[in-house]
Write a structure and sequence with these properties.
- The chain is of the alpha+beta class.
- It has 2 domains: about 1-70, 434 Repressor (Amino-terminal Domain); about 110-185, Jelly Rolls (Sandwich).
- It has helices spanning about 1-20, 25-30, 35-40, 50-60, 65-70, 120-125, and strands at about 85-90, 95-100, 110-115, 135-140, 145-150, 150-155, 160-165, 170-175, 180-185.
- A 6-stranded antiparallel β-sheet has the order 1-2-3-9-4-7, with no helix packed on it. A 3-stranded antiparallel β-sheet has the order 6-5-8, with no helix packed on it.
- A hairpin with a 2-residue loop joins strand 5 (about 145-150) and strand 6 (about 150-155).
- The protein is globular and about 45 Å long.
């Protein structure tokens, strides 16, 4: 089932790349990969990280929903997402994302309810880092989250918030033996800024 979903997303990415007349080399440069590694993703041989999808969507000037659900968002006045009904995105091992505004078009923010599962091996290892243009705001709802932004590392607890330049390498992992749930708001940088 998961491999089928990866294949569907890969087909949408490839189709849009071809439609926009972009080369694999152009798109691979956006996600800081070799063209061969990028093509493994595009051919459905590798899963996609949030950062990969976010950067590719920006390059192709589409909403991430285009890749995830195969259609562009249509709502423009408001979008109501009932408790637990966000669009699920499981794009990173140990993390579950619920997109909380997927049907709204022309978003300047991508809001997610994120659950980071505790993994003892990850708790004692360096945090995997990624980066993307824009800014991010994370607010801890429950649990503890170890966050690294550039050279800074800190532990956030329930009620804590952090706002940062997401163009700086950053990453996170649940801390304290339990899952951490947090609200993540990923803000796009307007073109020309």
């Amino acid at each position: 089932m998961m491999h089928e979903k990866i294949s569907e997303i890969a087909e949408r990415i490839k189709g849009l790349r071809l439609l926009l007349d972009l080369t694999p080399e152009e798109v691979a440069a956006v996600v800081n990969m070799s063209p061969d590694e990028y093509l493994k993703h595009e051919n459905g041989e590798r899963d996609f990280s949030f950062t990969f999808l976010y950067l590719i969507a920006g390059k192709m000037n589409v909403d991430m929903s285009e890749f995830l659900v195969g259609m562009m968002p249509r709502l423009s006045t408001f979008s109501l997402i009932k408790n637990g009904e966000g669009f699920p995105i499981n794009r990173r091992s140990g993390f579950q994302y619920l997109h909380l505004a997927y049907p709204f078009k022309d978003k300047i923010t991508e809001p997610f309810l994120v659950t980071a599962n505790y993994d003892e091996a990850l708790a004692n290892a360096p945090i995997a880092l990624s980066k993307h243009e824009g800014q991010e705001f994370d607010h801890i709802i429950s649990g503890k989250l170890r966050v690294k932004i550039g050279a800074h590392e800190m532990i956030l607890e329930k009620g804590d918030s952090i706002y940062y330049d997401s163009g700086i390498e950053h990453g996170m992992a649940a801390e304290g033996g339990e899952a951490c749930t947090f609200l993540a708001m990923v803000m796009k940088r307007e073109k020309g800024e």
